[in-house]
Design a protein that fits this description.
Oligomer: homodimer
Distance between the termini of chain A: 76 Å
CATH class of the largest domain in chain A: Alpha Beta
CATH superfamily of the largest domain in chain A: Response regulator
Structural class of chain A: alpha/beta
CATH architecture of the largest domain in chain A: 3-Layer(aba) Sandwich
DNA sequence: AGAGGCATTGCAAACGTTTGTGTAAAGTGC
DNA sequence: GCACTTTACACAAACGTTTGCAATGCCTCT
């Protein structure tokens, strides 16, 4: 149906090889005259290159795939923007696949769609791969790198923030404001990221000489609901003066549930979010946050895959962004 | 490097053709015995199919591409979920491409990446294609369908809500609550969608016998900033008792700016959002909305592309979702 | 004039599949 | 035991490119 280089070759009266060289603009391999003739023929036929065929013979591709864990985590967007920007610089194209939340079957589908095709490399945004899927990925021999997620048990390349520091600095921030009874809401201690954040929180509290009450740590899956449930578990007279939300969404959940319980934020209760995505600015009061540099993570991910041999695990910096949800505890 | 069917063929002592048939599970074309032998060999070699090669010869593909306009519009997620779910049902794989906001160069890049590859069809989520890019798309002969965007000048397939009705019903909702001075904030009248919403608004006001003051309509690009700027333009004593946000984001912008101007929502000012994404539930007060069924749009998009010959323009239903941002005007 | 070099182009193999056609062996019915 | 069908497989072409190699013609130098 669609025009091929053979059609162009016939129309321009040259061989397919020559057409290929002209279209790839391999200077020095064709005369000005035939170059024009071929380009004219291509334009006339509305030629569209079949990249799949080209990739088949060249055995390389300029597509990088980003697999994201779900549409729910809103921090995916700055990462993707970072990936796009850096990929553009390296003349790469980006395709994105959704892998669902905890659905190992959907993960497998996303993974095989990219593995079965010539992609140059794979970036996994915060996707916690089931063991068999990780095996699939490693087996494929395609370079990959995890983003915004880290591991302790297994040895894989990843780029993320230092989650221990995230927990530690969040807690420190509140301690410095004079808070003592500090809750941690909505983190998932089943995985490395959450465990590290809890550990950082514990260490900061320990250094301050504060004994953590067990109910101060409310685990969850970083979601809005998790934040709400955590706050409900704390209740109307929790004794807490500050709460760290395990993610922005969790913090918003805490915020709204706290308001329903009669708390005023930040007067009665300070809330500190972790992530620092745009949602922090949308709610009232705007949530102060320990912010991760997601854009930078995306950039670093592409760079890492373009410069193999680099160290496979990298930490991006975090910083406190003050907005309106924190107050000194008097 | 990677194993091919030829390697399997050699190992299993059969021809590549037979391997292909076994792996494609073409029952009746091979004996139980060779089937086992081939599968064992494939497993041993860690074989991964090269789908690109297969697609080259079969001239068809099971990939559908979704091109989304930017990472900013948060309604993309339910549409994508709808696409994924329905695509799964048809045994299709989905890849997603970002096309930037108003960057025709980035649009072109996204478009060519999919056109140059064997994709079965293309869904464009709310992307307003530059003329030359539309030509590119149409020229490619790949079936496509626009989602959540409509056109009047050009004849292309699209699935969206009835934007005139959106504007009309939003206005009606507020009129029924006794409001008369109603603002419309952040819609973009440069394109069909925005024009229609404005037209619906005008018609409802006309029917109610209300003369619209020019400053009541504050145009913008549906963003949070657009909402904020609109509200700032209205000012602290606008005389308005209700405002329609052109999108959820715009409505949140209106909400926060209104609060800064001293308005209490909904006591002093009712706000009605258009779209009804999750952000409406996250802010306080939760925003009532004219909600679109984005998930359904995604589903319908895939169905439309799987059943060609169907009518190419479809309207998905809208509905009012009441939350906490509306109050009767007394 | 012969040798060598260069510019331009054609030829053909290769990439990893799918699938139509050919064919030998085995099975079936009389 | 013959003709016929079925089963199970091999063979080879094809998909649309890229690219190494060969071939041609022309130019330049000695």
């Amino acid at each position: 149906m669609a025009a091929t280089i053979k059609d162009i070759a016939k129309l321009a009266g040259v061989s397919p090889g020559t057409v290929s060289r002209v279209l790839a603009n391999k200077v020095g391999f064709f005369s000005e005259y035939t170059g024009e003739k071929v380009r004219a023929a291509a334009a006339e036929l509305g030629y569209q290159k079949n990249t799949a065929a080209a990739e088949l013979v060249t055995q390389r591709s300029n597509v990088v795939a980003a697999i994201v864990n779900s549409t729910k985590t809103n921090f995916a967007s700055p990462i993707i923007e970072g990936i796009q920007a850096e990929a553009h610089r390296h003349d790469l194209n980006v395709i994105i696949l959704y892998a669902g939340d905890d659905d190992s079957e959907q993960q497998r589908r996303a993974l095989t769609t990219v593995i079965e095709r010539p992609v140059r490399s794979i970036l996994l945004l915060s996707v916690d791969l089931a063991a068999e899927n990780l095996a699939l990925l490693q087996n494929s021999r395609i370079p990959f790198c995890f983003l915004s997620i880290s591991f302790d048990e297994i040895q894989v390349p990843y780029i993320t923030s230092d989650d221990w520091q995230v927990g530690y600095q969040a807690t420190q921030t509140l301690l410095k404001l004079g808070h003592q009874n500090i809750g941690l809401a909505g983190v998932d201690s089943d995985f490395h990221t959450g465990r590290q954040r809890v550990a950082g929180y514990r260490q900061a509290m320990r250094e301050a000489g504060i004994t953590i009450q067990p109910e101060w740590i409310q685990l969850g899956n970083y979601s809005y609901d998790a934040g709400q449930m955590a706050m409900q578990a704390y209740g109307a007279d929790s004794g807490l003066t500050a709460i760290i939300g395990g993610s922005d969404m969790a913090a918003v959940g805490v915020l709204n549930a706290a308001r329903n319980l009669g708390y005023r934020v930040p007067t009665d209760l300070s809330i500190l979010a972790i992530d620092g995505t745009e949602i922090c600015e949308l709610v009232q009061p705007a949530l102060s946050s320990i912010s991760q540099n997601f854009y930078e993570m995306g950039v670093a991910g592409v760079q890492q895959l373009c410069a193999p041999g680099e160290l496979p695990q990298k930490i991006t910096p975090i910083k406190l962004v003050e907005r309106d949800s924190l107050q000194r505890n008097s």
